[in-house]
Each structure stands twice: as structure tokens, then as C-alpha cells.
Write a structure and sequence with these properties.
With 249 residues, the protein is an all-alpha fold. It contains eleven helices and two strands. It has a two-stranded antiparallel ribbon. β1 and β2 form a beta hairpin. α4 packs antiparallel against α6 and α7 packs antiparallel against α10.
Length: 249
């Protein structure tokens, strides 16, 4: 459940529900595909985001799945820490700690949940563009240094380890970009994120893994619960995010 509720699609559902508070009645009205094959990659990313201290060791060890050892990031070229490098026993290396790695896990959670709910990559990006203006602003001005720490221009977007020199650069970049001038060259080893491209790539990657059977028999799951997104073939039917069916609980 935590992984589902950490995603943009679920955040969007809360926004468009018109509810003034989140309570048990509201949560029961949302899709709950807890037997979906993609729960496997969703869970390892969720736990590595949340199991930050030894207090979480019993929960990590209870939920550990050997299938995680064969998992991987959708984007391998820029990742610094392999998501599959985990052990059955919790250690200080279990949680994702850099801002880059934690953001990557969240982006892939967004894509995984979108596939689980039957949303296309374009629908996921449309949700992002239409309902998450502050996040889009922060992502537009964001960079990551070679060691994975975040660099941002806005006061509430400054990275924990951001230096004054990095602040000077990112503010100069933002000023030039807004004016349509030539922006300063990004320092070597830095990464400029593109959330829409990353979500679309992750969506395609996890859809491919799902259909290849990496996480179990999706055809059997689809026969019982419905093939949301029509991944198994036939003419694709585009659904508005508000029309995504609620899976049987």
C-alpha cells in the first residue's frame, strides 16, 4: 500500500476526488492491485526508501523477496547504486540515501503504479503536467552532482549538501534559460533530470518485463483481474485516468 500511495497516480486520484481529508472510506474507493506481478519491483523500491534505520530490520527481513536480486533500474546508464544489491538481513547499506537514488526510486514507482493501473505513459505524463506544477518547476531547475546530491535554485529546492558555488551556477543557469540566452555548460559528472522522459522510459521497460514474464504469469493475472491497459494485445483502448477501473479486492 505504501508504494501505491507514494506514486503520482494516487496523488492525482486524491486531488481529483474532491475530498477534504484522506480517511479509510476514501482509501477503500481506490484501486488496490496488491496481487499484481509488479508488486515485486514496487516493494523493493518502497522499502529501500523507507527502511532507513535498524528499527525497520524486522519488517525488511519479513518481506524480503529473493526475486529482488534479479531486479534492476530502468535507467542503468546514470545510476550509482544498483537497486538489486540487497541482502535478507537489514544493514546500513539497505536504504537508498542519496537524493539522486531516492528520486530515481520515486520516478520508477510512478511508472510501475501507472502500468499496474492501466495508464499509458502519455497519461502518466499528462497527470504530471496538469496537476503537479510545483514539482515540475523544481524538476526543471534541478541538477545532481556526481556523488548524487541535489542542486536547486529555489529556496525550498536546495539540496542538503549543496555548496555556494553550486548555488551560483544553478541560479545563473535558470536566469539564462528564462531569458533564452546561452546557459552555462553543466559541470562534468552532473546529471540534468527529465522526469517525463524518465517516466516514459520506465513505463516501457516495466511493461516489457511484465509481458516477458519476469515477475510471474501476467496472462493469468489479467484473466482473473482484468488486463488494464490492454497489454496482452488487441486494439489499445485509451482510458482517462478517472476511468481506470477499480480492481476487485
Amino acid at each position: 500500500m505504501a508504494g501505491l500511495w507514494a506514486s503520482l497516480p494516487f496523488d492525482y486520484l486524491v486531488k481529483v476526488s474532491g475530498a477534504t481529508k484522506v480517511n479509510i472510506e476514501l482509501t477503500r474507493s481506490f484501486p488496490t492491485p496488491l496481487t499484481h506481478p509488479l508488486v515485486t519491483p514496487l516493494l523493493v523500491r518502497t522499502l529501500r526508501l523507507n527502511c532507513l534505520t535498524r528499527d525497520y530490520a524486522p519488517r525488511w527481513e519479513e518481506l524480503f523477496d529473493p526475486l529482488w536480486l534479479a531486479d534492476r533500474w530502468a535507467a542503468t546508464e546514470a545510476c550509482r547504486l544498483r537497486v538489486q544489491d540487497v541482502e535478507p538481513t537489514w544493514s546500513m547499506a539497505t536504504p537508498l540515501r542519496t537524493e539522486y537514488d531516492r528520486r530515481m526510486a520515486l520516478v520508477e514507482i510512478d511508472a510501475i503504479v501507472a502500468v499496474m493501473l492501466g495508464l499509458t505513459a502519455e497519461q502518466l505524463c499528462a497527470i504530471y503536467r496538469s496537476q503537479f506544477g510545483v514539482l515540475r518547476k523544481y524538476e526543471w531547475e534541478m541538477f545532481f552532482a556526481a556523488d548524487g546530491h541535489k542542486i536547486g535554485a529555489a529556496t525550498h529546492n536546495v539540496g542538503i549538501r549543496q555548496t555556494p558555488e553550486e548555488t551560483f551556477f544553478v541560479k545563473a543557469w535558470v536566469k539564462a534559460a528564462r531569458a533564452g540566452d546561452l546557459a552555462p555548460d553543466m559541470p562534468e559528472g552532473w546529471v540534468k533530470p527529465d522526469r517525463e522522459a524518465e517516466m516514459a522510459r520506465a513505463h516501457a521497460d516495466f511493461t516489457g518485463r511484465l509481458l516477458a514474464g519476469e515477475y510471474g504469469d501476467y496472462a493469468a493475472y489479467g484473466a482473473e483481474h482484468g488486463d488494464h491497459g490492454n497489454l496482452l494485445g488487441g486494439a489499445e483502448t485509451e482510458l482517462a485516468p478517472s476511468d481506470v477501473p477499480v480492481e476487485s479486492r
